[in-house]
Specification:
Strand content of chain B: 15-25%
Strand order of the largest sheet of chain A: 2-1-3-4-6-5-11-7
Structural class of chain A: alpha/beta
Number of domains of chain B: 4
CATH architecture of the largest domain in chain B: 3-Layer(aba) Sandwich
Number of strands of chain A: 12
Number of helices of chain B: 20
Radius of gyration of chain B: 27 Å
Distance between the termini of chain A: 51 Å
CATH class of the largest domain in chain B: Alpha Beta
CATH topology of the largest domain in chain B: Pyruvate-ferredoxin Oxidoreductase, domain 3
Number of strands of chain B: 23
Largest sheet of chain B: 7 strands, mixed
Mean pLDDT of chain A: 95
Largest interface: A-B, 61 and 71 residues
Distance between the termini of chain B: 53 Å
Oligomer: heterodimer
Order of helices and strands of chain A: HEEHEHHEHEHEHEEEEHHHEHHE
CATH superfamily of the largest domain in chain B: Pyruvate-ferredoxin oxidoreductase, PFOR, domain III
Bound molecules: iron/sulfur cluster
Number of helices of chain A: 12
Shape of chain A: globular
Shape of chain B: globular
Low-confidence stretches of chain A: none
Chain lengths: ~350, ~600
């Protein structure tokens, strides 16, 4: 078996159009989901996987409408359960490329348990989490990623919930691939999708997605102000800003800080290593947020190899079959002490 | 000099001791010896949910009852003829069940002041005359065992622990059981510790020899093999039979089996056992929770596997939203509910039949799901295949109900000839079905099942989901007429299964005035009670439901044939509520919820009360 998305034979010539369905897309005009859908549809042909071997599974929420718009196999399931359903599908059908599309409420609130366990098991699925920091479908309640103080329909005096940082959660859950991109940055989002699809095992991608109806501008600090995008590139010192004048350095306690490159010199900067076994530095990077530094890293935080659940299960099946021979029902029924009455 | 051998037609023995005394193992070995001898038998393990309750305490008592005979029997027996009590607590909790004049064997060494106090005795019952109506054998099992093992290189504690094998040896002598099986079993079980194996074998043989030589035991008893139907038999518990039934369903459908499960008593045994059958291509997945377990099973079904999830009431409740999704997706899915006493955690190791209304109605909205119930431990095998057959043919989730009594109880099972098992294979869609297009909800005219097109099939790419779908295309639809149509057609599909399941059969006196109608795990006690009443000259008929949704097509006709219908259930009247609601029948309920199976005696009384 190969990676999720790189198991094509290279002979298939598809275009973005081939991944569009006859269904009318029904997100609010201006919703960031449109841009993500377009990016995914135009990236898909690159996989060179026949459409019938691709499956999109979603839970509930605005993002969860996604499978209806992909000309592949798909399931729009129930709230929060997509990673569990995808786990059953992926482990029983290693020949498929299985994708989960979810949102912040779906993945981190009602479905939090399934998300963390799919990640730690390293099931061969790619999870795209559209984070808009609000419940859109139910018309604007705060979500587990909403910042403290956010006023919404259910928090008229401001949210008092400390939010989840999705990437910190994923890293804490032993994820082997963790990345972030932005809905409107087609080029970057495509690069991240490519890396995620090429990863063996569970890949987790957070996409900053603007909900222009209930939480407009939540990510303007990076969507609009491009100088606040801390681009992570493997093997390169981490620099950002309009003139690349800023950089990221590790403190002695292992946390990351933003520094002035002119002041500290390039050699002091953290060189990004996406393939480091130890997730601590990736975690430190995930703590750089609008709240802490007014900027946020995008790109691949972590991409490491670890045995894939689906493959391990398949290996056990093969080992058991090798040892005992293919199962014989007759022999199974007669196993143990038997006696015959004539 | 050999002691005389007396013939008996049946015996009920209960082994009772502390959870740490190995009573389940002792009972299990006695059962194997009995099975090999060819008696008919039925067993009832009864153990606490705590792995080790405080030693010597009343809640820590673990019991194992076996009923064996030279004729066919239906239950583990109401009252034991012989009680083996390994300590005062075991005596106290079990003595009330021992038959008048029955044999009581106690471990005299365990009747210390401390143990007596823990069991709530102020003076020893062995000396106060309270046991006069029984034949009491106070045997110092512990010291005899230690004495027998003094040559062995084992600690005193290890020697003491072999006392259950001494007791087993004694009982094996008393009831002339074959012993080779137990010796082989011990050799294998302790293969890596030969000294322990030999010590246990020695204790077992010493117990046997004690019976032969002790003057306390004046006779041996023999129960001749039963004349069961010809065939090859093995002893199975309900959970073992269910497991084999699931394997068989996979083989007979030609589909890979996928089990998603979360550990829960009394269903975990199925997960454990199935995970040993990977060479059948079976995938078992221990999920993070009950919801993920059923979700993964449904995901596997979407991919063309036979998706199964196993649980018990508290877990089934958690799965219900996903089962509702399976109703909407119209995909095959098996949900096994091994019922236990509740609500909440209730009594996890004790049986109850109180999830019937849950599985019939415990989902939001109109959400019909077929329900199959197993009646006997061996019958769990057929129930699994039947549930899978319905799920695959009608593309629907199906509940299979068992309970803690069937799950852990055992009986001889006539091993079916594999070539006679039903073919339950089904076809995947591989072609467009409507003007060159694929419509995922274009139904089969006869079964009303929708086509099952699995990912990987070129040209049939489609999306399904929990939102209401337009008939045919499966596209999201909020059209009022379409919703009404879909609700009704899903109901009609499930109701239509009635034409494809066996009719309700009536046993006993078909022309009686009273029908006893039961379902599921009460089969044995009800059938035994009916047999007893008829033997005493009473006229009574018995019908037992194995399909609870839809009900067999002749149900109403059968019920109306009788003046009175008695419905015994281990709940507060769930099937009787259904029968009353569906057929306006004045069913009389007989209910008990003690976490114990019905005794045939109490049911016989209930029946006689209505004659
Ligand atoms: S509510 Fe927000 S997230 Fe949902 S479709 Fe509208 S803009 Fe998009």
């Amino acid at each position: 078996m190969s990676t999720n998305g790189q198991n094509g034979d290279g002979l298939i010539q598809l275009s973005a159009k081939d991944f569009k369905t006859d269904q009318e897309v029904r997100w609010c005009p201006g919703c960031g989901d449109y841009a993500i859908l377009a990016a995914v549809q135009s990236f898909m042909p690159e996989l060179a996987i026949p459409r019938e071997r691709i499956v999109f599974i979603s839970g509930i929420g605005c993002a969860a409408r996604f499978p209806y718009y992909m000309q592949t196999y798909g399931m729009h399931s129930i709230h929060g359960r997509a990673p569990a359903i995808a786990t059953g599908l992926s482990t029983s059908r290693p020949d498929l490329s299985v994708w989960v599309v979810t949102g912040d409420g779906d993945a981190l609130s009602i479905g939090g348990n399934h998300l963390i366990h799919a990640l730690r098991r390293n099931v061969n699925i790619t999870i795209l989490l559209f984070n808009n920091q609000v419940y859109g479908l139910t018309k604007g309640q705060y979500s587990p990623t909403s910042p403290v103080g956010q006023r919404t329909g259910s928090t008229p005096m401001g949210s008092i919930d400390h939010p989840f940082n999705p990437l910190s959660v994923a890293l804490g859950a032993e994820a082997t691939f963790v990345a972030r991109s932005i809905d409107t940055d087609r080029k970057h989002l495509t690069e991240v999708l490519r890396a995620a699809a090429g990863h063996k095992g569970a890949a987790f991608v957070e996409v900053y997605q603007n909900c222009n109806v209930y939480n407009d501008g939540a990510f303007d600090f990076v969507r609009e102000d491009k100088e606040n995008r801390i681009r992570l590139e493997h093997g390169k010192p981490i620099r950002f800003g309009a003139e690349d004048e800023k950089g990221v350095r590790l403190r002695v306690d292992g946390s990351a800080e933003v520094v002035d490159v002119a002041e500290v010199g390039e050699d002091a900067l953290l060189v990004h290593d996406a393939h480091a076994d130890e997730p601590s530095i990736a975690f430190a990077l995930s703590r750089l947020t609008r709240d802490t530094v007014g900027a946020a890293p995008i790109g691949v935080f972590r991409d490491v190899a670890r045995p894939v659940y689906d493959e391990l299960l398949q290996e056990q099946i093969e080992a058991a079959t090798e040892k005992s021979g293919p199962g014989e029902l007759e022999a199974l029924l007669h196993s143990g002490d038997t006696w015959t009455i004539s | 000099m050999a002691k005389p051998v007396e013939q008996l037609d049946q015996v009920v023995i209960r082994f009772a001791g502390d959870s740490g005394d190995g009573m389940q193992l002792t009972g299990g070995r006695f059962t194997s010896e009995t099975a090999i001898l060819g008696n008919d038998l039925s067993t009832l393990p009864d153990f606490p949910a705590e792995i080790r309750a405080p030693a010597g305490s009343l809640p820590g008592v673990s019991g194992f009852q076996i009923h064996f005979s030279d004729h066919d029997i239906l239950t583990p027996g109401d009252n034991p003829h012989v009680l083996v009590a390994m300590n005062p607590a075991a005596l106290r909790t079990n003595i009330k069940d021992l038959s008048r004049g029955g044999t009581l064997i106690v471990n005299a060494d365990a009747f210390t002041d401390r143990n007596l106090e823990k069991a709530g005795y102020t003076i020893s019952p062995l000396g106060d005359g309270s046991l006069d109506e029984y034949q009491v054998h106070a045997v110092p099992l512990t010291s005899l065992t230690i004495e027998a093992l003094k040559e062995f290189d084992v600690t005193k504690r290890e020697a003491e622990r072999s006392k259950n094998m001494f007791a087993l040896g004694l009982m094996s002598w008393l009831f002339t059981r074959p012993t080779e099986g137990t010796v082989q079993f011990l050799e294998k079980k302790f293969a890596s510790k030969p000294e322990i194996a030999n010590a246990n074998i020695k204790a077992f043989r010493a117990g046997y020899a004690f019976g032969e030589t002790s003057e306390a035991f004046t006779a041996q008893y023999e129960v001749k093999p039963a004349k069961l139907r010809p065939g090859t038999y093995r002893n199975v518990t309900g959970n073992q039979a269910l497991t084999m039934g699931l394997v068989a369903a996979g083989v007979q459908s030609g589909l890979p089996l996928f089990l998603g499960a979360y550990p829960i008593t009394p269903a975990s045994g199925i997960l454990e056992e199935l995970s040993r059958y990977k060479h059948f291509g079976i995938r078992t997945f221990q999920a993070e929770d009950e919801i993920a377990a059923v979700g993964a099973a449904l995901g596997a079904s979407f991919g063309g596997a036979l998706g199964v999830t196993t649980s018990s009431g508290p877990g089934v409740v958690l799965k219900m939203e996903t089962i509702g999704l399976a109703v909407a997706l119209e995909l095959p899915l098996l949900i096994l509910d091994i019922q236990r006493a509740g609500p909440a955690t209730g009594m996890p190791t004790k049986p109850e039949q109180a999830d019937l209304l849950l599985v019939l109605y415990g989902r939001h909205a109109e959400s019909p799901v077929p329900v199959v119930a197993a009646s006997t431990p061996g019958g769990c095998f057929d129930a699994a295949i039947e549930a899978a057959r319905i799920a695959l043919k009608y593309r629907t989730p199906v509940f299979l109900l068992s309970d803690a009594y069937l799950a852990n109880g055992s009986e001889p099972w006539s091993i079916p000839d594999v070539s006679t098992l039903p073919d339950i294979s089904t076809e995947f869609a591989d072609q467009p079905n409507h003007e060159g297009q694929f419509q995922p909800y274009l139904r089969d005219a006869e079964t009303l099942a929708r086509p099952w097109a699995v990912p990987g099939t070129p040209g049939l790419e489609h999306r399904i989901g929990g939102l209401e779908k337009a008939d045919g295309t499966g596209n999201v639809s909020y059209d009022p007429d379409n919703h009404e149509y879909m609700v009704r057609i899903r109901a009609r599909k499930v109701a239509g299964i009635a034409a494809d399941i066996p009719e309700l059969e009536v046993g006993g006196d078909e022309d009686a005035d009273l029908l006893v109608a039961g379902w599921g795990g009460t089969y044995g006690p009800i059938a035994a009670a009916v047999r007893r009443v008829r033997k005493d000259g009473g006229k009574v008929a018995h019908a037992h439901f194995t399909h609870l949704n839809p009900l067999p097509r002749n149900t109403e006709e059968v019920l109306r044939r009788y003046d009175k219908v008695l419905v015994p259930e281990m709940n507060l009247g769930q099937l009787s509520k259904v029968l009353r609601a569906e057929f306006l029948i004045d069913a009389v309920s007989y209910n008990k919820v003690r976490g114990l199976p019905f005794t045939s005696g109490e049911l016989a009384e209930a029946i006689e009360g209505l004659l």
